[in-house]
Write a structure and sequence with these properties.
This protein is mostly helical. Helix content is 75%, strand content 0%. It is built from three helices and no strands. The longest helix is centred in the first third of the chain and has 17 residues, at 5-21. The chain is elongated, with a radius of gyration of 11 Å. The N and C termini lie far apart (28 Å). The model has no long low-confidence stretch (mean pLDDT 94).
Length: 67
């Protein structure tokens, strides 16, 4: 399994949804969203999507404090 272009879109959509669910203000949403984009750029596309999503979700939890 590898990371396809559709995976990037889905992960970014999930990021925005999670930020909104956590009640994060717009400025923090922007910061988190662009940091996740950077994480995706640095990710190894050969890694399975669940591995990358786990890293992204951990980052979002750390930044928002939302479980």
């Amino acid at each position: 399994m590898k990371l396809y272009l559709d995976c990037y879109v889905c992960i970014l959509r999930q990021t925005l949804f999670a930020c909104r669910q956590a009640g994060v203000d717009e400025e923090a949403q922007n910061e988190i969203f662009f940091r996740v984009m950077k994480l995706l750029q640095e990710a190894d596309a050969a890694d399975p999507p669940p591995k990358i999503v786990t890293q992204v979700q951990k980052f979002i939890r750390e930044k928002t404090g939302y479980e």
